[in-house]
Amino acid sequence: MKMQIPENARLELAPGGKLRVGVNLGNFLLVNKDAASGELRGVVPDLALELGRVLGARVDLVEYPGAGQVADGAKAGAWDVGFIGAEPQRAEEIAFTPAYLEIPATYLVPAGSAIKSIADVDRPGIRIAVAARSAYDLYLSRNLKHARLMRAEGIPASYDLFVAQKLEVLSGLLPRLSADVSRLPGARILEGRFTAIQQAIGTPKARAAGAAWLREFVAQIKASGLVARAIERHGVKGVSVAP
To answer: Which of 34, 76, 89, 243 has a CA positioned 20 to 30 A from the CA of residue 124?
Structure first.
């Protein structure tokens, strides 16, 4: 893929010829770390390498355990671009591209639950396990009126909290809940979704030229089929190229 790159955009995104890319290791759908080699693989590393190739820059993948920590890295100036869910709260510090990929988020309920639909969840007395500072935690924090969020550090820990405390609802990404439901006899995933996480590329807000060019980059990788091929190559289920 060839693109013209304004020099001021290149300097903002890859100063000194090095592109530091913030990566969320908590998003197991898009990035995985090889236990033996420590190498990162998945949709995000593939797209980061393509971004570096187009910019003519060396890529340094900066690892974080969760999306919240990636967002913190923008304030600290620890990365030049970050692959992270676009959310209004994060947009205070980060200039986001349109989404390149989206992941539906929904709820799982235990066996015997009286909750039949997503509309039934936001009621007094309902406790929802959620991965702290995830994009869907931020969404639910803005939108829930009555149900109570019970936060855990990371997606696996939110499942453990749901089971250990016998909570009424587990929130999460549909692909992960589809695996979790098989571990809990009688559990159900509620039909539909309460949101779709918009996976995007961001850069610190002050880098206006870089942000403008990144929007073009994302449009190109979607139109060229690069995102779709990366999803297929890594066998990722339950996600789709963003419209």
So the answer is: 89
The predicted structure's pLDDT at residue 2: 78
What number of other Cβ atoms are within 10 A of residue 59's Cβ?
18
Q: How far lies 202's CA from each of 94, 99, 184, 239, in Å?
A: 6, 10, 37, 20
- Determine the structural domain holding residue 48 and report its residue range: 7-101+199-241
Q: What is the pLDDT of residues 113-123, one digit of tens each?
A: 999 999 999 99
1: in domain: no
CATH number at residue 145: 3.40.190.10
Q: Please check whether residues 170 and 236 belong to one and the same domain.
A: no
Nearest-angstrom CA–CA distance, 177 and 118: 14
Below-50 pLDDT ranges, the chain = none
| Per-residue pLDDT at 1 | 74
Nearest to 197 by CA among 124, 118, 74, 106: 106
